[in-house]
Design a protein that fits this description.
Number of strands: 20
Helix content: 25-40%
CATH topology of the largest domain: FAD/NAD(P)-binding domain
Strand content: 15-25%
Structural class: alpha/beta
Bound molecules: flavin-adenine dinucleotide
Distance between the termini: 15 Å
Strand order of the largest sheet: 8-7-16-17-18-15-19
Number of helices: 16
CATH architecture of the largest domain: 3-Layer(bba) Sandwich
Radius of gyration: 23 Å
CATH class of the largest domain: Alpha Beta
Largest sheet: 7 strands, mixed
Number of domains: 3
Amino acid sequence: MAVVIGGGISGLTACYKLITESRTRDLSLRVRLFEASERLGGVIDTVKRDGLVMERGPDAFISTKPWAKDLCQEIGIADRLVGTTTQYRRSFVIHNNNLHATPQGFYMMAPGMIIPLVRSPIFSVKGKLRMAMDLFLPPKNSDEDESLESFVVRRLGREAFERFAQPMIGGIYAADPSKLSLRSTMPQFPEMEHQYGSIIRALMARRKNSDQQNASGPRYSLFLSFQSGMQTLVEELSRQIPEGTICINTKANRVDLQPKKNRWIVNFNQNQHIEADLVCIALPASRAAAIIKSASPIISGLLGSISYSSSITVNLAFRQEQINHPLDGMGFVVPAIERKSILACSFSSVKFDNRAPEDIILLRAFVDLAQERNMIDRSEQQIIELVLRDLNTLLGVKGNPIDVLISKYDNAIAQYYLGHLDRVRQIESEIAQLPGLAFAGNAFHGVGIPACINSAEKAVTKLLGDFDL
Ligand SMILES: Cc1cc2nc3c(=O)[nH]c(=O)nc-3n(C[C@H](O)[C@H](O)[C@H](O)COP(=O)(O)OP(=O)(O)OC[C@H]3O[C@@H](n4cnc5c(N)ncnc54)[C@H](O)[C@@H]3O)c2cc1C
């Protein structure tokens, strides 16, 4: 018997792979998945009403990491993937309350083209000259990790950090860049520094290579979703899992090891339990820590020390005439120094086709919790007022939205602070000594959906290896 705890994308993938892989290897293995809530998908949650397709959580996944795309192919839904629209492949950064296009060539948090950088009004002349110094500064001569903030300020200067890198990082991790580990979150950057001695030079070379690759054939859009939203992935994955495998409304409380039998006991409410040869815990780290505490206080302590950030998303639908801005981009990010209540906003109905009826605009704002943590406890009305105030200033939005959907995620996105890699290494070496136990989820090697899928695949490889012994 194999038990998966958690029915988000990590748990569903682990469950599906345990079933398909054990079939392929001709292993006789029963699989059960237990999900605490009444629905599957975890933070992936699409709400469809009145012609609107609103994403509470993730609205897309990145196509450059193969695992999500490959899973879609495997379960036969690759033909339902949709890329972002090609009309406006750009986004904006707020500067003194105005939207300015991200200079062409910028990648994640650094410039990759000189002329668009020189022309951009986002940075002062002094700021641009400081960024250009990256071309001449010597590379760091140690492998020691550093924070994202320290890296950007060291290579490109404080202005590049405050005006561009910080809001970009905030948009991805909803996190404090002075604490985030560069090597855990963006390992490609120290590699670029090491190989090219300069981030700008590395990005210019990268651009040249990708231009050559693009010329050699079609490729996926950088971000992918589905016509009916991200829930499609959850629905189709669970459809391929045999009936009777998944139990919703069933919260696991504790996982214990029965040393004599070398089996695991998964405990639920009311003294109910199930014995298992294999257990995959696919939960946010703090929940996983609580469940595994009696079986492995060491793993529990390590998992419990991984921080998570919270997030609030607000979907808002407006009539076209309520918005002054042409919305000729995918959305915008807001530097913390602009002191707004929102940290980013996607123009959802511009970014993807078929997200709203004609003449209706669907926007999705992310509320900034870094400046005010207790925002998560505010009433929906207060949150809407703050978001509308910003949208009025930045996009000239007038009046009330015709539909609103607020979603609060408390402690949902793992924060890879300095020391994360060591912590994960320690967790992995402890787990290696516990046959039949594995973890999946966003606490380890990436917070995005592709990384979660990959974490589940690796967990299944470990479990089936243990089972084969
Ligand atoms: C607002 C937001 C936006 C995001 N945007 C993107 C994006 O655009 N692209 C991207 O790639 N990634 C994005 N992410 C990250 C990504 O969506 C998540 O990292 C990923 O979906 C996490 O999946 P998971 O299965 O590991 O965890 P979860 O989705 O958290 O699932 C865990 C599941 O376990 C259940 N559970 C909890 N405790 C128990 C228990 N004791 N017993 C049984 N079940 C339990 C929960 O109910 C839940 O269903 C976003 C995340 C958030 C919060």
